[in-house]
Task: inverse folding
């Protein structure tokens, strides 16, 4: 073997051997994982990310189940409501990362002894297929109450809140903005028109774009992406306000790879990392990073006030009641 190739091989082998592997639990959409991993590892070639991905609800349950013997080092890309619960249950370590002052305060753990930090905010929207609506003579809804109209029976999909953070934040938004009694009454009325509940937050909008349903209560970012690709969608911000949450990062308490975990958390808050988020999200955590997303609606004007602590503490009871009432319409898990 030529000397140059030998040296290259030795250097490469030595670098790989020196890499520390971080197990990172996430609910980021699958198409983002390779890009985020590549960007971080380019800056920190001594650390390698091993992703473990599932939907928000499943990942939250997994972290709680592993509380006494955690297999994760970092949680990156999980809803703030889930992170608040994980903090309450002692899963996350309190930590003050470098660059915290550069992050919007409303996207950060509001408590003293902070444990989670927002990377980007995500929002719901009503994805309305104009072509399907025209073919079926369906009116354009303007408010949440409009969706109770029997004309939409079998034409609406939304995420199951037990398996999707997108679903849980909308259920929470209804309960917090309408009140418990009216919120549950509203969801019972809406269930009459629901075709099915999905286990993915983006899927209802995808199904609306494909014409499988006329309306998908879903992620605003997925709706914007699909509309940009030519789907006949109108993205509606219903009267009454929309649910939202924060995809966040935090370090798992007791990780044996604390130094590397801190490095990843710190990096995830940098402007460079936020520029990655801004490729797919219109609202990111860093105060100085802004990039418009094509066809993204004015979500910030329709935000309801969200209490993440209440979302965390009430999660178990809310999901239990929701499942007892409505789970029979959930799609089978793939």
Result:
């Amino acid at each position: 073997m030529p000397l140059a190739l030998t040296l290259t091989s030795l250097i490469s082998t030595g670098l790989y051997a020196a890499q520390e592997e971080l197990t990172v639990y996430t609910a980021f959409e699958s198409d983002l994982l390779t890009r985020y991993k590549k960007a971080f590892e380019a800056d920190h070639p001594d650390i390698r990310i091993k992703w473990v991905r599932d939907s928000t609800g499943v990942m939250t349950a997994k972290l709680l189940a592993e509380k006494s013997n955690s297999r994760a080092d970092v949680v990156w890309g999980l809803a703030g409501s889930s992170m608040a619960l994980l903090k309450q249950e002692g899963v996350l370590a309190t930590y003050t990362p470098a660059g915290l002052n550069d992050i919007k305060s409303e996207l950060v753990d509001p408590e003293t002894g902070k444990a989670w930090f927002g990377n980007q905010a995500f929002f719901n929207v009503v994805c309305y297929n104009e072509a399907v609506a025209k073919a079926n003579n369906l009116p354009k809804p303007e408010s949440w109450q409009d969706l109770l109209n029997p004309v939409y029976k079998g034409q609406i999909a939304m995420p199951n809140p037990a398996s999707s953070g997108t679903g849980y934040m909308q259920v929470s938004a209804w309960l917090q903005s309408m009140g418990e009694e009216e919120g549950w009454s509203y969801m019972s009325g809406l269930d009459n028109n629901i075709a099915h509940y999905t286990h993915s937050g983006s899927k209802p909008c995808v199904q609306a774009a494909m014409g499988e349903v006329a309306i998908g209560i879903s992620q605003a970012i997925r709706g914007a992406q699909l509309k940009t690709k030519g789907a006949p969608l109108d993205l509606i911000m219903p009267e009454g306000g929309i649910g939202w949450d924060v995809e966040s990062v935090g370090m798992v308490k007791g990780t044996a790879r604390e130094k590397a975990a801190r490095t990843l958390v710190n990096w995830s808050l940098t402007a460079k990392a936020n520029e990655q988020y801004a490729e797919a999200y219109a609202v990111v955590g860093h105060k100085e990073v802004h990039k418009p997303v094509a066809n993204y609606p004015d979500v910030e004007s329709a935000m309801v006030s969200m209490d993440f602590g209440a979302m965390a503490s009430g999660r178990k009871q809310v999901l239990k009641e929701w499942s007892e009432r409505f789970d029979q319409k959930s799609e089978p898990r793939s």
User: Anything to note?
Assistant: The chain has two domains: 3-121+245-295, 122-242+300-329. The beta strands are 20-26, 47-53, 74-79, 117-129, 156-159, 194-198, 215-219, 233-236, 244-251. Residues 79 and 166 are 9 Å apart (CA to CA).
